[in-house]
Fold this protein.
Amino acid sequence: MLYQDIREQAFHANMQLPALGLVLFTFGNVSAADRRKGVFAIKPSGVPYNELSPEKMVIVDFDGKIVDGSLRPSSDTLTHAVLYKHWDGIAGIAHTHSVYATSWAQALRDIPIFGTTHADHNTVDIPCAPPMDDAAIRGNYEYETGFQIMNCFAGRQLNYKEVEMVLVGNHAPFTWGKTAEKAVYNSAVLESIAKMAMHTEQINPAAPRLKEALIKKHFERKHGPDSYYGQ
């Protein structure tokens, strides 16, 4: 089978979305890239997860053109293609409409860094990209979504290699990583952080942002030069 490795990666990553409670029906998609070949495998559009197989994954290049596969790729394919083309440090992208993260996106709010669970993965609030303008919406919408994400990161001077998740305003979350598996991991982490943050504000609407000393400690013990978390 052509491109078997990334087909397998994309299939297994997509199957994690319903297993982790991150999608409903056919919502969401994951892709896995082979950067050397300049292609990625992505879920076919509108196919239920229980009907997926590695063979059904669609192979697309970084311009969004179908390279191999008999099915139509995800409607979000061009967003994935834009990010792969411009951010060469990623090889997996996940998109869900998970309830809590999507709720923050619909509210057009960043997710504040309230606690150490958040700080274990990010040192900043999870950014919410502003809604795109009407001309972009009427144009090549999914293509423009990729630039909506990148422009948010450029405007805030964020590094996509350090912050591997974003909320697309009025839409839903996207996450990424060096593998499709890591992208799905980041989607699950984001959903958990979003849920905790919502409950935090319900319990205490004036809850303060986590202090910098704790942000630094928790992030660096997992990701810093002297990290000591794990084996």
Q: What stands out?
A: The two ends are 36 Å apart (CA to CA). The CA atoms of residues 174 and 196 lie 19 Å apart.
